[in-house]
What we know:
Layout: H1 2-11, E1 29-31, H2 40-49, E2 53-60, E3 70-74, E4 80-82, E5 86-92, E6 111-116, E7 121-127, E8 131-137, E9 145-148, E10 154-155, E11 161-169, E12 172-179, E13 183-194, E14 208-218
Parallel strand pairs: 2-5, 6-8, 7-14
Antiparallel strand pairs: 1-4, 3-5, 8-12, 9-13, 10-13, 11-12, 13-14
Amino acid sequence: MKGRxxxxxxxxxxxxxSACTTSAAPRHSVVVxxxxxxxxxxxxxxxxxxxxxxxxxxxxxSSRFPAGTVTGSNPSxxxxxxxxxxxxxxxxxxxxxxxxxxVAPSTCAxxxxxxxxSVDTGSICLRVGSTLTVTFISSGGWSGxxxxxxxxxxxxxxxxxxxSSWGSSGKTATAVFSAAGIGTAxxxxxxxxxxxxxxxxxxxxxxxxxxxxxxxVDPA
Length: 220
């Protein structure tokens, strides 16, 4: 498209501007609705009706929400996104939330953190009201090839952690979160593994390589 617009500009030299006006299609935006506490089906329908593209991840423990209900979304409710934007849902399995050890306030921080799959679970502590930018880096899993999906990481509890943006390029992706309330939330990011181009026979690889980040939010 960029090349075509460039060609239009060159052809318009010496011609009246009114004769070569080019306008791009407007980019509509949608505010993510609040679907926390809804059933998975109701939440999916609500997001689809709003012009968004939902995807749910189930089986997440939650002591606050009964099984089958949505505990979090990313982007979170109230965030303005483009029409058709992907929205990830976290669905409770009704189990108890794992007990976590408190983190000393002196170790809490805000800012940036890079996370790779070199450890099973990463962890960080934030203070309420702070913002966190996480750069997820993948080696490509078993095959060494693949890419981050278009759906942002799921968040276990939006009353603790809210997601505002997600962008990916190859094996690197960046997510921005804000600490909304005191407690512990879990973030799951999925890397889509692909077979290596050099494979001459069909290969079998796990479809996803997950990275898990535990975020503890302490009082300001």
